[in-house]
């Protein structure tokens, strides 16, 4: 939660300090003295007592040759910078002509559109401009091109005395619908609701001299928005043949659906000249706040009156804005004075500056509470308590006010148009910076007086930085003195806060420095949890600035397959982008690490296989090649296949050599056996051919013990039984 601006803290008036004055009055006087001192007495006196006067600086102005009735700051091209759209009505004794101008954030002219007898314009949040130019209504794109142009009178001779226009996405289709109210004098008035394609959605007729004047829309629940219409009565001018608005006559406020049916209405004693839709009670539905002569009412979405308040004079403008950083919404009303009401309608404060013709509520200081920018004969800025912080030189009557970030610096500028034919832009960046700095200094000073030197350092550094940006050297020195007194480098907790402060600002070298100092301090008290946290922060702080460079090196070494280097930088890339929240690059670094791990495993297995190849160990070489092949299937890199194939070829060569030795030796053995068998066979044949019968007799079991040369009848192995068939001889048998 942002701290409040100085001046927002209120003390009960019942508290009395010595001397008889209330504590709130005492601190108010002290604050005034300090502010006058810091800004200079002469400057404060010349600007009505505001110490912030010099913090608002004019950026540019343009003369558009006619009264400026409406200005709008809106980003037309999506570049984060608002453009300014202005309508200009040039009036002479011969008649009037209107032009719509677009200027970029630097004040350079862009497109312009001739609006004819310009009565009213309105620019939607999407940058579309609806133009009421008397006899016609036109819808323009953000680039100034005409979407459509339709006639608003029933015959060429019909007179039109006034128009009011409004545009917004009323049915949630992502396109703007247009609301055009046209005054035909005694013939009555018409409110026409048209779609983006100019199709007619509803036509509402008003009788007599009652005319649509203040237009808006509200989210009352349901599928479409409710059109809000405040009417006023016109009186004929018999001399000039025209009609003029009469705010004192009874008029009505209406809530219409998109089909033109009245949801509810309420009557006022005077003209309903201002309508604003905003969620003032936090129920997520908008309420309607309506202003008339001497009265402001707030309505629920069902038309119930939530509160009713009295004001002085005719209400010309209503806006809503935050009252504080707790989300409470206030209602600010411009009439004879400026009035501030809380959500329940209780009056908070009022400010007198003459008739208020324009008003805008916006949190300029970015502290959670709205300033009120009001226009009368000059432009004024009030803080959330109704105190004046800026007043311009007289510019004539201010007709319209808006705000927008025109240069993309994160701070809005005030844009206002006036009767003197000019649109002006006022820069508020320095005001926002100094307002925030003063809040931070107030908290730092309180922390110092409470003895909380760590909190003193935290808020003091915030204040010092903002004072430096705003160029307030004296205030910057004031903060430095406070920081020096607090001894901001005295403890580990201080270094811890400084580490986080600079890390959040993106000043990583400072964050790394204070992280190391903090770790050293916490190590002295053996607080290792803080030591580890600070050292981890230091590592991230050192990694983040070089994250892009490390990413490039990781990719380079990975492409070169230098995995040791690629893995080294992948770890740093992962650490940096985990913190930065870039999951795509975190995944890429993890993929590099995983791939390189597999690559190293592949190389290791191939090298092991090669080692066994050199040792002529085919079995182990083949085993490691199979492991390498499994890893290779996940690498998806064909350039690695060559290494595998080379080692595999060498292993296969070893296998072939082993096969040659094994099968060659077996062949020799077989050959020798065959030779022996052949030799035995030849010897046997030879002996038979030479008649070695005795040898044969011994071989076939003859009776070697008998003295007779005749064989025994029936004896085994007798020559008779060795005869061949048909009485052939043994020799003939062998021959056969």
Report what the structure shows:
It is a single chain. The chain is of the alpha+beta class and 736 residues long. The chain is 36% helix and 29% strand. The protein contains 15 helices and 34 strands. The strands form nine sheets. Strands 16, 17, 18, 19 and 20 form a five-stranded antiparallel beta sheet that branches. Strands 3-34-33-32 form a four-stranded antiparallel beta sheet, with no helix packed on it. A hairpin with a 7-residue loop joins strand 16 (210-218) and strand 17. The longest helix is centred in the last third of the chain and has 49 residues, at 641-689. The chain starts with 15 loop residues before the first strand and ends with a helix.
Using the CA coordinates, give the radius of gyration: 50 Å
Structural class: alpha+beta
Low-confidence runs: 1-48, 703-731
What sort of overall outline do the alpha carbons produce when their principal axes are compared?
elongated
Give the averaged pLDDT, no decimals. 83
Oligomeric grouping of the chains: single chain
Counting DSSP H or I runs of 4 or more residues, the number of helices is 15
Helix content: 25-40%
- Taken as a percent bin, the fraction of beta residues is 25-35%
Query: What does the largest sheet look like?
Result: 5 strands, antiparallel
Number of strands: 34
Gap between N and C termini, in Å? 125 Å
